[in-house]
Specification:
By secondary structure, the chain is α+β, with helices and mostly antiparallel strands. The chain is 32% helix and 27% strand. The protein has a 7-stranded mixed β-sheet with strand order 1-2-3-4-5-7-6, with helices on both faces.
C-alpha cells in the first residue's frame, strides 16, 4: 500500500457515483459507520460506540447534509456529512479503504460544498495523515470530543487556496 503522501491510482476499484443521501439511507449509513469505526477507532469504548450508533439516526445524521459514494449496484461505499464549511463526518467501508473513495468524497465536499474545516480524533493517526496529505493543517486541539468524551480532537483547516 502506498502511504497517503504518495498516492497511487486504485487497482481494480469499482466505479462509483456520488449522490445525495436521505433518511432512507440511514440503515446503510449506520451499518457502514459501525464497520468503519471498528476498523479505525480502536480507542473507542464499546459503550461509546453503542451510544453514538443509537444517536446517529436521531441526532447526528439529521443535523448534516449527507452525500455518499454508491457503486453500480447501489451499495454504499462511503459517506460524508457537512454543516456550513465543516466536514462533520467522513467514513469509508473498510474493504474500500485506500481505493480513492474517501479522497473523492473529500474533493467533492471542498469543491462543491465549500468545506474548509474538519475535526479528527487525535488517536486516529491514519485519518490525520489523510487530511494533512490533502492540504489541511492543524489549527487547534481540544482535550475532549464534541460530546465531552475523553477523545482529543485535532482541529484542521484547509490552508489558502489548497485543494485536495
Amino acid at each position: 500500500m502506498a502511504p497517503y503522501g504518495n498516492p497511487q491510482p486504485p487497482a481494480a476499484a469499482a466505479p462509483f457515483a456520488l449522490e445525495a443521501l436521505t433518511a432512507s439511507h440511514y440503515p446503510a449509513i449506520v451499518e457502514l459507520w459501525e464497520a468503519a469505526v471498528r476498523a479505525t477507532h480502536g480507542f473507542l469504548a464499546e459503550t461509546d460506540i453503542a451510544e453514538i450508533r443509537a444517536a446517529l439516526p436521531t441526532a447526528y445524521l439529521p443535523a448534516v447534509a449527507l452525500f455518499g459514494a454508491l457503486d453500480h449496484q447501489g451499495r454504499l461505499l462511503g459517506f460524508a456529512g457537512t454543516a456550513g464549511d465543516m466536514l462533520e463526518m467522513l467514513f469509508v467501508a473498510p474493504d474500500r479503504h485506500r481505493q480513492g473513495v474517501g479522497s473523492q468524497l473529500l474533493r467533492h465536499a471542498v469543491a462543491r460544498l465549500g468545506i474548509r474545516r474538519v475535526d479528527v480524533n487525535e488517536q486516529n493517526p491514519a485519518a490525520t495523515a489523510f487530511y494533512l496529505a490533502q492540504g489541511f493543517r492543524q489549527r487547534g486541539r481540544s482535550a475532549t470530543d464534541g460530546a465531552g468524551r475523553p477523545y482529543p480532537l485535532l482541529h484542521l483547516e484547509l490552508t489558502g487556496d489548497a485543494q485536495p
